[in-house]
Amino acid sequence: MKIYRPLWEDGAFLMPQQFQQQAAWDVHLADSVARMGLAHPWGVVAAEFDDSLLPLSRLNATRLIVRFPDGTLIDTERADNLPPVCDLSTVSDRSLVDIVLALPLLNANGGNLDDGRESERPRRWKSERVNVQELAGHEQSEVAVLRHNLTLRMAHQENAAWLTCPVTRLVRDAQGQWCRDPRFIPPLLTLSASPSLMTELAELLHHLQARRQRLMSMRRENNARLADFAVADVSLFWLLNALNSAEPVLKELLDMPYRHPELLYRELARLAGSLLTFSLEHNVDAVP
């Protein structure tokens, strides 16, 4: 969609289009900057659900923070309403269902605000009037606010009219009831959005630390009071070097999990490349 940057000048007659175009340009600018540092600057920051309703075939979100591929940020804590409960009774014949957060596509020809009338396509926004506090004073005033028209949909449905982002996967348990798959990892914007990924990272770091400590104990002191290995153990030297280089970075990512998982991938790929030095069966092409 073409964006026209408004010219803010004295005496200009203000119209909704000016603010809409300015907001669209700001979103485009933020997304362009994000893509300079990340290949995929979209995904889940937080996705929490009420598991107690799953036996009743109902999926209810309690907290969602998601950035869509077009740069739209959804935050149900600050600005957005939670989507309606998703009815799972319509998929009684399935044992696995991927759930996506869906946002109607933006129509460049307008008509994106739901006015209560029937429409052939879903509308992107809803309006709502809320009382807003004036921060400098003590008065409250009623303000019309824009809400994203969010829904929880199933990935196998016809979703061509929506932007979608996977948020969870549902599977049947031994009793045939729905439960969330703890192994499912959606597209992520932060490591902390996936408890299973954080658990695997902690376990990997534990194994690396144990192996590093074992190698450290095998060193000896040379005449220059420096630690080294025997000439025959030069491979152990390079293995210890690889582990020493990776551990501080991985530990920092574990301690500060509000980082993009691309940073974790880069470090794991670098570590895997170093370890492939000792492999006769694989080469760097095996790194995904």
From TrEMBL:
Pfam families: T6SS_VasE. Signal peptide: none annotated. PANTHER family: BLR3599 PROTEIN (PTHR35566), TYPE VI SECRETION SYSTEM BASEPLATE COMPONENT TSSK1 (PTHR35566:SF1). This is Type VI secretion system baseplate subunit TssK. InterPro entries: T6SS_TssK. It comes from Escherichia coli.
